[in-house]
Amino acid sequence: MSYYVVQGGQTLRGSVPISGAKNSVLPILAATLLNGGRNVLHNCPDLRDVRSAIQILEHLGCKVSREGDTVTVDSTVVDRWDVPHELMREMRSSVIFLGPILARCGRARLSLPGGCDIGQRPIDLHLSALRKLGTVIREQGGDILCEASDLQGRDIILSFPSVGATENTLLTATACSGVTRIINAAREPEIADLQEFLRKAGALVSGGGESVITVSGTTPRRDVEHTILPDRIEAATFLCAAAACGGEVTLTGVEPEHVGTVIQCLRDGGCAVRSAGRTITLLAPQRLGSMPTVRTMPYPGFPTDSQAPLMAAACTAQGSALFIETIFENRFRHAAELQRMGADIRISGRTALVTGRALHGASVRSTDLRGGAALVVAALAAQGESRVEALTHIDRGYEHFAEKLTGLGAKIQRRDD
Ligand code: UD1
């Protein structure tokens, strides 16, 4: 079993490099299937989810190698069109392989995806968009069987700007004849990054990062070299840790604009935050103050993935904060664990009212990826020793988490026994 032992109460000081974005590298790895050539991806974080995506690519026939943070995928040969059940179960984002496998092979077989237990997470929007583009989809014993002989571009209106559904539709649309428009598309920066990758491969795509994306079906055939954009959620997590622990922390290799809503909340809580180029420096107050209501929204609103780490910081504040989770219905599971550290959190449906107070160390268990990161933030700020268990969740999305925090002066040790 893996766990962190954290001696809380240390202020954080120094600078920390931000890794490439998990939520960008996963769809881009899936997209490497399209060009039937060589794809060189820089700034790829070494995460459990990234390893799962690489295993899927290898299963499908691709040759993949890693050197430092550069991953090279040769997709010349793709001779399978299924994603094994274990890998689907491992992470929900494996559903993102559906579009590229379909576009490349004309058929695909996947089982229903796994991932964090933060809500129902259906894939109806993905399937309905692919059907409209001409895919015949059948469900058989927990598997989804897709066949597409004649994909035709058309207008796809998403009833909600789902990140995954936007990506799957975009990836499938590259193989459609004619023009596809994705209307009410998700606007997350990771979608703009996917578009940039696809353009380098020769796809004709515009509007990525805006609410209407236009794809003129042209098979992307060019080799690609691409650098994955910085992880805004990892960046936000470090900002929350610094705000909760006190001190002064500089993030490097980050895109400040992508963290704007989180920075605003922390400023409201009394932090001085300045950005210059690709760095952000946060100077924490003696104690974080009240923050106005935090409502999670699709980008450019406050990210649901940062709700848990910010809640952990709010638990230590002198004042209160109200959190409203509008994206996933089951995303307050970390609250019960935070309460074990003394946090005052009152939950009613999708709303959590946090009244800040001093936290104490405790033995807690990660409930999901971002919830796990939140427990680490709280443990760092708490007085005394904590033990944070179930690191498999945290390993999915944070590269060298303990090492990076140690570099800032935190006392955190990983134990695997
Ligand atoms: C992505 C991110 C995840 C983030 C989330 C929201 C990746 C790998 N993961 O997940 O970290 O928390 O965006 O920013 O990029 N929905 C449906 N039907 C569908 C698809 C989604 O009802 O077919 C609902 C979901 O249940 C949820 C909401 O839409 O309530 C948002 O989901 P979505 O944007 O699709 O999130 P993911 O792409 O799964």
What do these coordinates show?
- The protein has helices spanning 22-31, 48-60, 85-90, 98-105, 124-132, 163-173, 189-200, 232-245, 260-268, 307-315, 333-340, 369-381, 391-395, 401-407; strands at residues 2-7, 12-17, 38-42, 63-67, 70-74, 107-111, 136-140, 143-147, 155-157, 179-183, 204-206, 212-216, 224-227, 247-252, 272-276, 279-283, 294-295, 320-324, 344-348, 351-355, 363-365, 385-389, 411-416.
- The chain is an alpha+beta fold and 417 residues long.
- It has a four-stranded mixed beta sheet with strand order 21-22-1-23, with helices on one face. It has a four-stranded mixed beta sheet with strand order 2-14-16-15.
- Helix 5 (124-132) packs parallel to helix 6 (163-173).
- The longest helix is centred in the middle third of the chain and has 14 residues, at 232-245.
- The model has no long low-confidence stretch (mean pLDDT 95).
- The chain binds uridine-diphosphate-N-acetylglucosamine.
Keywords:
417 residues, alpha+beta, 4-stranded mixed sheet, elongated, binds uridine-diphosphate-N-acetylglucosamine
CA-CA gap between termini = 5 Å
Rg, alpha carbons:
21 Å
- Principal-axes shape call: elongated
Percent strand equals 25-35%
Strand tally is 23
Helix content: 25-40%
Poorly predicted segments: none
Side-by-side strand order of the widest sheet:
21-22-1-23
Individual helix count: 14
Oligomer: single chain
Major sheet attributes: 4 strands, mixed
Q: Pairing-aware structural class of the strands and helices?
A: alpha+beta
Question: What ligands are attached or bound here?
Answer: uridine-diphosphate-N-acetylglucosamine
Overall pLDDT metric: 95
